[in-house]
């Protein structure tokens, strides 16, 4: 069935059920960013494979609302499907709800599957439509009727991590979460988000590609802890360990019935990480407290054991990246490299490291104009052959049992232009400014975003994505609650957080540049003016200097770059062969 046929089948179902508009979010019952195959509903329906977007379908229009990261990709993938790209003005905003409000008459019905929509999304839709006498039904799954070969839920095995890896037991984490609940006089809490569940219980799995998580819900009631999971995923020993930590195990789908039967005065649900169907299952009379999961804040602050392991993972990743770039440089003139083949080779090099589990997201290997697509993924149709000319952008990462990595580098394959040098140097200047930031305790991510963008803004350039995101410990590569972007998000940057710094510049149809490192927030000094924090750069991989226009840098930027590259060589040289050492020494030579 082609995408246009699937759209027609959806419209027939809508007509049969009296539905005037149907909304399909990019999500699952856990409000995940990356989805199991069963919940890749937007890709199946429309052909769009990006990780963020919403479909809104009426009888005479079908649109995909997505942000600037995906404008080019979406326009290409939606061609001939019957769906049209609608460009979001504000990332993640429910602008489709207001579009529907403007076009549907009173008495219309808008529906969506409440298992796929967060409570926050459902509230935004209801807030825009209900005052206009447009009915909203959040319990309609039209896809299950027409998606005949819809994948079943994953059945991969799950496993527990030892305290020597995590630095804290599950029992200790449960105690800390409960302390936060008691402060708010809350006796029950449902955790739907898979990374929160994984962190609390020191539980990992492979139910979602690139994310070491397992499908499940965790319900805390008074002193009772219940994990809802397919218990066949857990070994007998792991089940016993969880029970010893005070966690009972029940079948996965019984979570909804358990919430519907809950007897408590107040329950905490995270509106951005809880699906509407679960929210709607809470019995009348139970007060719902909408707030961020306590574990989300606790998880973001890494302990000393996690930080030490992460540093080890960075060395492993740096070895793989060094060997990769050396290989590309040596092989590109032979004319056999493509975007897909180099991504495969990078994964092979990472996999050679002890403790490697998976890549942390699909590698972005963007050659020439493909580098201008921030979330590009090469397909058989787009797979560009590399030539000894132009810019290559590589954004990639690894999942190791001792940490999660995320790094972006740009190299020239030959024929560097003045425009490329200028753009590259300005982006590098932004990366350095962000990395060198010193700021008082209580600083928010949007302030770090502005510090990083300042040298780019000064040249009247900008980029459409955020400057940085939190990164988990052997968990999701995108982790909240903090983020470095222009949004006024009231979450402080705290000691122990690991965050990316990744400014960029993109010239559509030509090339893209992004330079990304992960940094650790660390205490710097306390004095009468306050407590100050700075960043320690964790990522260990040389930054190319042949693309640098030194005249565009201040001396402090030159000094930072030279110190960083010298440190990279110092950290990696002992792990490389003599030939690899000599190659890296040239790449890290001071400018």
UniProtKB/TrEMBL annotation:
Ranges for domain Peptidase M24 C-terminal: 532-591
Keywords: Aminopeptidase, Hydrolase, Metal-binding, Protease
Origin superkingdom: Bacteria
EC number: 3.4.11.-
Organism taxonomic ancestry: Bacteria, Pseudomonadati, Bacteroidota, Sphingobacteriia, Sphingobacteriales
Boundaries of every Creatinase N-terminal domain copy: 6-129
Cross-referenced InterPro entries: Creatin/AminoP/Spt16_N, Creatinase/aminopeptidase-like, Creatinase_N, Pept_M24, Pept_M24B, Peptidase_M24_C, X-Pro_aminopeptidase_P
Segments forming domain Peptidase M24: 310-520
Organism (species): Sphingobacterium suaedae
Enzyme class at the top of the EC tree: hydrolase
Similarity field: Belongs to the peptidase M24B family.
Name of the protein: Aminopeptidase P family protein
Pfam families: Creatinase_N (PF01321), Creatinase_N_2 (PF16189), Peptidase_M24 (PF00557), Peptidase_M24_C (PF16188)
Presence of the UniProt keyword Metal-binding in the record: yes
């Amino acid at each position: 069935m082609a995408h246009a046929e699937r759209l027609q089948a959806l419209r027939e179902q809508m007509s049969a059920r009296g539905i005037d508009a149907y909304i399909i979010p990019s999500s699952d019952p856990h409000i995940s960013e990356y989805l199991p195959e069963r919940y890749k509903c937007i890709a199946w329906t429309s052909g769009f494979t990006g990780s963020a977007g919403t479909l809104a379908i009426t009888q005479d229009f079908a649109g995909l609302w997505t942000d600037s990261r995906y404008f080019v990709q979406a326009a290409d993938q939606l061609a001939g499907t019957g769906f049209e790209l609608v460009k979001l003005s504000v990332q993640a905003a429910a602008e489709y709800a207001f579009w529907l409000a403007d076009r549907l008459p009173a008495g219309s019905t808008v529906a969506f599957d409440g298992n796929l929509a967060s409570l926050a999304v459902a509230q935004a839709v209801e807030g825009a439509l209900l005052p206009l006498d447009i009915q909203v039904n959040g319990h309609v799954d039209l896809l299950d009727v027409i998606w005949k070969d819809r994948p079943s839920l994953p059945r991969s095995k799950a496993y527990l991590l030892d305290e020597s890896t995590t630095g804290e037991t599950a029992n200790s984490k449960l105690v800390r979460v409960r302390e936060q609940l008691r402060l708010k006089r809350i006796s029950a809490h449902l955790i739907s988000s898979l990374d929160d569940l994984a962190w609390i219980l020191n539980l990992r799995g492979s139910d979602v590609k690139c994310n070491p998580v397992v499908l499940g819900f965790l319900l805390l009631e008074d002193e009772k802890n219940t994990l809802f999971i397919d218990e066949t995923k857990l070994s007998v020993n792991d089940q016993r360990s969880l029970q010893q930590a005070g966690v009972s195990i029940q079948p996965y789908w019984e979570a909804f019935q358990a919430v519907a039967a809950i007897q408590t005065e107040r329950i905490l649900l995270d509106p951005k990480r809880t699906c509407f169907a679960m929210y709607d299952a809470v019995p009348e009379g139970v007060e719902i407290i909408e707030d961020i999961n306590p574990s989300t804040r606790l998880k973001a602050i890494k302990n000393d054991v996690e930080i030490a392991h992460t540093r080890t993972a960075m060395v492993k990743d740096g070895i793989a990246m060094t060997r990769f770039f050396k290989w590309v440089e040596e092989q590109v003139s032979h004319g056999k490299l493509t975007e897909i083949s180099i991504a495969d080779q990078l994964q092979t090099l990472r996999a050679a490291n002890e403790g490697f589990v998976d890549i942390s997201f699909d590698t972005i290997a963007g050659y020439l104009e493909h580098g201008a697509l921030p979330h590009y993924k090469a397909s058989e149709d787009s797979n560009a052959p590399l030539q000894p000319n132009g810019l290559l952008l590589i954004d990639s990462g690894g999942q190791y049992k001792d940490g999660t990595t995320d790094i972006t580098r740009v190299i020239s394959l030959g024929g560097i232009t003045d425009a490329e040098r200028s753009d590259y140097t300005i982006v590098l200047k932004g990366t350095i400014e962000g990395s060198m930031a010193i700021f008082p305790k209580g600083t928010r991510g949007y302030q770090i975003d502005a510090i990083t963008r300042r040298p780019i803004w000064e040249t009247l350039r900008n980029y459409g994505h955020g400057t940085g995101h939190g990164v988990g410990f052997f968990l999701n590569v995108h982790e909240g609650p903090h983020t470095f972007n222009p949004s006024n998000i009231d979450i402080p940057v705290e000691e122990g957080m690991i965050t990316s710094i990744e400014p960029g510049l993109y010239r559509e149809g030509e090339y893209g540049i992004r330079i990304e490192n992960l940094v650790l927030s660390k205490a710097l000094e306390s004095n009468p003016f306050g407590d100050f924090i700075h960043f320690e750069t964790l990522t260990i991989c040389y930054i190319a200097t042949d693309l640098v226009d030194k005249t565009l840098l201040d001396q402090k930027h030159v000094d930072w770059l030279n110190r960083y590259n010298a440190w990279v060589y110092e950290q990696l040289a002992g792990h490389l062969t003599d030939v690899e050492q000599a190659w890296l020494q040239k790449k890290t030579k001071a400018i």
